Amino acid sequence: xxxxxFRPAINRRDMQAVLETMVDDxxxxxxxxxxxxxxxxxxxxxxxxxxxxxxxxLLDVLFQALGLEEGQGxxxxxxxxxxxxxxxxxxxxxxxxxxxxxxxxxxxANELETALAVSRDFSVAALFCDTALGFVPQLEVLAEQVPAxxxxxxxxxxxxxxxxxxxxxxxxxxxxxxxxxxLTTGGGAAVLGRTRKQASGLSRASDxxxxxxxxxxxxxxxxxxxxxxLPQRLHRRREVAEILQRSVMQSRHRxxxxxGEVQSVAYGLPVVVETGRSEVAAFAKKKGVETRPAFxxxxxxxxxxxxxxxxxxxxxxxxxxxAVPNAASLWRQTLLFPLYPSLSGKHVQELSRLLVSxx
Length: 359
Known about the structure:
Blueprint lengths: L11 H11 L8 H14 L3 E5 L2 H12 L5 E5 L6 H8 L4 E3 L11 H8 L6 E8 L8 H7 L3 E4 L7 E2 L2 E2 L6 E5 L12 E5 L2 H10 L11 H33 L4 E2 L13 E4 L4 H10 L5 E2 L5 H5 E2 L13 E2 L4 H9 E4 L7 H12 L3
Parallel strand pairs: 2-3, 2-4, 4-5, 5-8, 13-14
Antiparallel strand pairs: 1-9, 6-7, 8-9, 10-11, 11-15, 12-15
Helix pairs in contact: 1-8, 2-8, 3-4, 3-7, 8-12
């Protein structure tokens, strides 16, 4: 493909940091892993946290740290990665869905109010939502409505509000660190607690976890270097986004819109397709541009169901389209186009021309 959907933002400094770790005595979890967590805590102004090799182990620890009691459960955005619902079910934690705002893909105050008014057999102890494709929910409003707020900020890491990094209103932050995320360590995930109480909860929950499940120094070295370069890379993403967004506005399709005054993160270019999504994807492929459904791998992508539930679906996880119509509509219509710091000027021009002429 001439223009791939993603290309990891890794430069010589990143590679040098990893090489220096490879000649050290420690490749597994050690001092650099601790330094990486400290750097994240400083970046977000949180109290404590942990980094793991993979997200499922992280969620196990997080669910334990929440201290849910019998009769309590959680609300999940259907646009979260499917692993959230799968891990909750494996742990026997009751959960239900909260729809998203149709303009941004983030959980909105009205949608949360509607979800909280639903009669169910558990009380809501926490809301799990995310920075969907780089767009940030109105966290202050959401935090006022629920006992605990968990924000997956993987695709919105570095978003700013009133000259401050977004995230301070959440009780816990989850940061996936895979190659397609804004910040990558080549794999793994981190969880941060805002207060000492929440940080202590994470620490206690991880006491019984064996050392090898934590993020190795080899990966942490890349994360430290990436975090230092993040402001420059986000600036380049915004520059490219301004050009490509103008092109979409000249087409028959539309963009997602950031609510409030937040400076969102340009994670890819999500286009809400007003015609057939497959037709637009085929047109882009013919022109050498890779795309994919924007919410691929989400809960609704894996477990979404209309009136007729397919036999192949896990009966324990069913996300009804009727219960979350806005999320279902965005899942069907939104296509993700390339947008990353290393896009050349030539490729930006080619993408711009393509977006204007989308069928």
